[in-house]
Amino acid sequence: QVQVVESGGGLVQPGGSLRLSCAASGRISSINSMGWYRQAPGKQRELVASITSSGRTDDADSVKGRFTISRDNAKNTVYLQMNSLKPEDTAVYYCNAVVKYQIGYTLASGEYWGQGTQVTVSS
Predict the structure, then answer these.
(1) What is the rounded average pLDDT of the residues 66-74?
(2) Which of 15, 61, 88, 95 is the S-S candidate for 22 at Cβ 3.0 to 4.6 Å?
(3) What is the bridge-based pairing of β-strands 57-59 and 30-39?
């Protein structure tokens, strides 16, 4: 089993900053990528930022220059530093991990999600 746990959400004023953390644990052989998605009320879940094990990142246009994703491979942890927050960033933020794990002599792949953390940007 693999667990993905987020932390760090909350209420912040426009222009403020928050840092989200996400740790993956369990029977993990390696992690291919980790990322952050968000879902606002009445909208579809969308990619915010992702990072591969080699450090290659992919950011949504709406957060470029404001959000930074980073990763600690030794801790199986990913961070999302969010600066210059706007009301439209308000959403539930979900962490995603694409991992490889061993079953017997076989290496299998799986995708796992955290439970989500609320980020509210409001004055």
Answers:
(1) 96
(2) 95
(3) unpaired
Mean pLDDT, residues 51-56:
93
Concatenate the DSSP letters of all residues of 74-89 into one string: GGTEEEEEE-S--GGG
Q: Which residues contact 76 (CB under 8 A, 6 or more apart)?
A: 23, 24, 25, 28, 31, 97
Would you say residue 120 has pLDDT above 90? yes
Tokens 């990619």 sit on residue = 47
Q: Which of 36, 66, 32, 67 is nearest to 50 (CA)?
A: 36
Give the list of residues 6+ apart from residue 106 with CB closer than 8 angstroms, or none: none
pLDDT at position 103, please? 86
DSSP conformation class of 93: E
Q: Give yes or no for a contact between 75 and 85, defined as CB atoms under 8 angstroms apart.
A: no
Q: Are 72 and 53 in contact (CB under 8 A)?
A: no
Contact 80, 68 (CB under 8 A): yes
